[in-house]
Amino acid sequence: MVENNAKRRSMKKIGVLGGLAWPSTAEYYATICRWSEELHASTGAEGISPTPEFCIESLNLAKALSLLGTIGDEGSWARFDAYHRDGLKRLEISGAAFAVIASNTPHHRFDAITRDLAIPTINIFETVADRCAALGIEHVLILGTSLTMKSQVFVKTLARCGIGAFAPEDDEQRSVAVLIREIQRGNVSGAAKRIGDLAKAAFARHPSRIPAVCLACTELPLAFPEERSNPTFEAEGICYINTLAAHARAAFEAASTDPAYTSHEPYA
Questions:
Q1: What stretches of 102-243 adopt beta strand conformation (E)?
Q2: Residue 14 carries which DSSP code?
Q3: Three-state DSSP class for residue 26
Q4: Residue 258 pLDDT
């Protein structure tokens, strides 16, 4: 009975390009496995909960940052693109059915990085744009690394769904960079309040019908541990888009071979 049930609810192998940084990579793995177990229990199914097979290719964050190019200088990105693409190719060789890059920043170079791959890669920017559109969000504040906050690739992806995007002021962007480094080191004390205060200041300058913040660095959602598995959540009147959970949810659904895994609202 257990064997038949596991076979019926089998899941595709997920490839994760991670290490960018490792705390969020671990959260991708834990979140998807947690959803698998919770949904298995909620359906009343018998036997051991099936979880997807994973292959995690963990890159060196310091090396990736050292290879960053310059916006507007296409040639300067060659080594950055190749480093990430080579990692995805190793996931391809591992037998992964598809891949996710567990970081927002490399998605600025998504087309170049994923060129010539035999397996699909789920785009976090497109996932976020779809989420915002479904919620009726018209404008969103982007918080993330300097590259992500300045990325016209992200802005254009959102614009295709009719969503405007803006970044905080320069001094606030520097504060976000400091906060991201602290969270990467495991220090989340007071981080949620700092994000909230920054968002309120930004929306005072840019009023919006639905104040929405895109936590566009996969470390930033870790500042809200009670919301870690929620693709969207509200705090003090602000709607937050948890890019990590939204991306992990897209991977969870892509890995599913049983419709039951994609039709339960609590996991949406």
A1: 121-122, 139-144, 164-166, 212-216, 232-235, 238-242
A2: E
A3: helix
A4: 59
